[in-house]
Amino acid sequence: MQVDRQQFLDQGYLVLRGVIPPAQLHQVRADFEALVERQKTIWAQERAPGDPPGGVWETQRQPRLVSYNTLIDAETASTVEIWLQENTLGVSRQLLSVPEAASVAGMMLMCSPVRDHGPAEWHRDVHPIDMAPLAGLQKDLLENGPKYVQWNIPLYDDDVLWVVPGSHRRLNTDSENQQLLDNPRGSLSGGAPVELNAGDAVVYINYLLHWGSDYSAKMRRTIHGGHSIFPYYPDISFSAFLSPDARATFAHWHKKSAELQDWTESGLRAVIDGDVGAYLAALEAIQPGVGEDGKMVLSIYLSKAALHIQVVKHLDSAADGDASSSAHLCGISEEYRRRAFQPHPLSINWGPRFAQRFTASEAVVLQRRFATLDTKLQAQQEHFAPGFQASPMRYFFNEMPAGFTLADFIASWG
Ligand SMILES: O=C(O)CCC(=O)C(=O)O
Ligand SMILES: [Fe+2]
User: What is the span of the domain harbouring residue 314?
Assistant: First the structure.
């Protein structure tokens, strides 16, 4: 399937018809429903005191199978293999910044809730605490193409998702900001529904302003996830159920992930050592061919890695091993703790285990080396901007540090 990359980059999404052919739809639905039943059993077992018998299935506005690959068996392997097809992975390869690095990133299923929950909030999938200001992400996107593309593949007709075409390339307008402040769950001028029939797909840049317009009880089973240039799988034992080819593909990506983690460490060590050549070599290995704007975003991501390492070390020493439960003990806000402990490979955050590669004193040096950049990414006061997945914070949502170049960053290592 040949797609129009320019159209994708211009409007921020492409609708593809018949990604799941009608003849296969019945079987694919049945395979996913088996996973839904498995997850429902788990949710019922894990329900909190006071929850209804079904737990999450009954309480969430969008019950979601996250990493459903952990639920598969040989009979339901198709639910994973769907991500490896020519009309999914092959399409993403045409769209991503580094085609040869295209790999599956997250396999989820979005389900309708048991009762109507109405509209969600308009947002971009951007959280500046551990990503970068939107303007920087957009310059990188326009310079290099996407690091990640997201997919919705509905198994039943679905027009829940709305988008503002073209908004991935620009900040919100004043009018959009006003409308979102007035009502983040209302219709937004320029917004349009993505109308998909069962088996169609939309592939999109998740910096787009987008909207879950109505989380109603109408049957929804929509495959959700994407492809990225930064593979990461905490555990690939699920691949034992796949075809030999698919198993080999995941094994290859798992190895690539280990190499990327090593390069991330090398980049951070180059900053500790003040070795500019090694630093630039690490960026090039992480994202081959990346331009100046992309190097700036990768540098910000490395500054976040330094931050996450510092948070993990701090909590480790405070809690004597029980790091995840002690954030309140040392004044680290819950949001920082959550981001440090939740791998986010799209921003080269490899999770808390990555912090073990550095000693506590190296973590302190890292924080010092990144301090100028980190300070420039923050305002004096907590503030808020509409249309992001974040609460008020000091990190800038939209604007990059004015006049601060990659050379300035390197000079700031001290
Ligand atoms: O329900 C959808 O299609 C959109 C979901 C979404 O935007 C999100 O989870 O970030
Ligand atoms: Fe989203």
Answer: 258-411
